[in-house]
Design goal:
The chain has 184 residues and is mostly helical. It has one domain: Chorismate Mutase Domain, subunit A. It is built from 7 helices and no strands. This is Chorismate mutase.
């Protein structure tokens, strides 16, 4: 009986350690993907500035949300639960574009050209899918998003274009994402 108790407690400790290590690995990956997604907004803003296009593109946003719903289903997330997160992510992305446009009105960048929009959009789609996959993995194996994970993520979100308020809004929306319930 004592042997059984030792084996069970060892298994539980290993499981706890595994969950902690998955948690520790997933959050930096998630932050890196989010930082990269926000970083490429410079290219989007540059393209829109060069082509005199508005930052606001509602048909594009609807398309992004539909693709996110599909990707969410693929990684076992409840598609409706990602709406606030995706919309917050898009709002922050637009804010970043506006900041670049304002800065360029005062002081244009001379030695920089935006990458082709088709290439940038493909990268954004890839990042969006990766972000949803990492969120799903964090919820499933890393225990979700609690206060400790929120603080760590806030620290790791280091794109200079994101305000503390935007970080808080993004992390709050992240906490609302749920795994998809399979029919019984």
């Amino acid at each position: 009986m004592r042997y059984f108790a030792v084996v069970v407690s060892s298994i539980l400790m290993c499981g706890s350690s595994l969950a902690s290590s998955v948690n520790a690995a997933t959050l930096p990956e998630l932050a890196e993907a989010l930082n990269t997604r926000f970083d490429v907004m410079k290219d989007v803003a540059g393209y829109k500035a060069a082509n005199h296009l508005p930052v606001e593109d509602l048909p594009r946003e609807k398309n992004v949300l539909l693709k996110a719903h599909s990707a969410a289903r693929d990684v076992m997330l409840d598609p409706q639960s990602i709406d606030a997160f995706v919309q917050t992510q898009m709002a922050i992305s637009k804010n970043i574009q506006y900041r670049y446009l304002d800065r360029w009105r005062l002081q244009p960048e001379k030695a920089w050209q935006p990458r082709p929009l088709k290439e940038v959009r493909a990268q954004i789609l890839q990042l969006d899918n990766m972000i949803l996959n990492l969120i799903s993995r964090q919820i499933l194996t890393g225990g979700g998003f609690g206060e400790e994970q929120d603080h760590m993520l806030a620290r790791l979100l280091d794109d200079k274009q994101i305000s503390d308020l935007e970080k808080a809004q993004l992390i709050d929306a992240l906490g609302k994402i749920k795994r998809r319930q399979l029919p019984v």
